[in-house]
Amino acid sequence: MTASVVRQAVDWLKLRGTKRNRDGMARYGIVAPKMFGVSVATIRQLGKRLGRDHELAVALRKTGWYEARMLTAFIAEPARVSSTQMDRWTRDFDNWAICDTLCFHLFDRTPHAWRKVTQWSRRREEFVRRAAFALLASLALHDRKTIDARFKRALPLIERAAVDERNFVKKGVSWALRSIGRRSRGLHMAAVATARRLAASTKPSARWIGKDALRELTSAAVRKRLAR
Asked: Which domains are assigned to the chain?
């Protein structure tokens, strides 16, 4: 049954892929060895039709197709995603889009999310390290139960990774810092202090992250939102 649904899902995706989409995605750094060229919005449509089905998500990932791997973000069952699966799926990340999508729509809902932030932040692989901070940003945006103190304890991870010059890592680090700073007034103060230290760094990547975060966190829009 699962094998049949996998074939149907892959065929459905293949029909909706185009070279124009593939070329457009490549311009934004979204490349993979096997891809049809299907937008995330279209992939989500299929995800809604299929519903949550963990065995199907695991089987789809094994096809190797980029769109099938993206689909796992919308149909895997967060409570059933194991720590080992998270590590395995993260090692397969080959672009920022699949990294961010799985972190934003699946990984941040698993019971292993916080532990993976710490573990992956120490890893050297570009998209594994980005995943640490994409996941931290996703938790800051979605996790309404965790107290501010835990997010404050994550700020040193941001400072340590800020020296990483790789483009996708530093953008992920900035995203995490900005997301924490928007979460509450207390975290805003702590994030701004971190951003100011980074902006004064002699390291180009840390300086870029600090200035990027400060632009948003000191904006009138963010201050108004936090005041409410």
From this structure: 1-76 (no CATH), 83-228 (1.25.40)
